[in-house]
Task: structure prediction
Amino acid sequence: MSKTAIITLAVLLAIIGGIVGITSRAEPPRQVQAKPAYPVHIELALYQRGDDWEKQYPTAVIAETRNFGLNFYNSIDFDANALPTVTIDAGGVKTVIPKALSIMGVENKTRGLGITRINVHARVKNGGAMSHDEARLYILDLVEKFTALGWKAAFSFNKPRLSGIHALNYYGADALDPNYKLSFAEWMQLDGSLNWELYLNHTYMHVTVDRDQDHLDPNKPGAYIMSFTIEPHEEVQRIYVDEKERDHWRQLWIPIARKLRSERNIKEATLKAQGIPIVSDYKDPELPPAPPGQQNPVIPKDLQ
Result:
């Protein structure tokens, strides 16, 4: 190769190198966009504004506000390997639910009270197949944690007040005593969903345990999931009257309460005659505080 050709080749290589350098500086290598960081802990309170909760957790909460009457605030599909813990602030107490699969807050558009119902679905331990006794101990331990916070058994106004084995024999899985530790044999004999109704400071929490009905062999693994519904006492009371009358349900409460209490009295008298003890020191929760412009009725002695 001649000297001129060598010089020409060197110049071309320099030009090409310069172009490549300019191009590399003008267009930096593309970076893979990082996934949003989902929270490991989520808090939600009754009466909290739904849009405030959405702003608090923008990567974890999606609003559905085009429905008539209600707004729904739903959590995203969490990473199955990193489920968050959810803390519910209700009744002045913070209740912790581990391994939340989903969270939903429901808000009534017209009433302007914020979120008045919270639904949580949660995994039992690490999910998947597990021994029934392992699930039993985990769930009963969680219920025990709730009672340690002050949550107590709640009875419908027309249902007999029973505890322990007597509640189990009468209600089955429909209304379990949170202070009664079910044995493994009792656990496996229960049919359908397992339910606890709890009350604390004008707040109700319904705890439900569902299990795969096709895998109930006590000697083989089962599959479980827990659900929690938390509502203010006010919302629970309102459903005793027709929807069009719910804004002034207090004016209608005394005759309704008398009818319900009469039904309970008849049932309890029958049970007493059979030698079954009644939890006579249980008192139905006091009516929730009345909103401005209203007042609670005076409760007569026969309903106290």
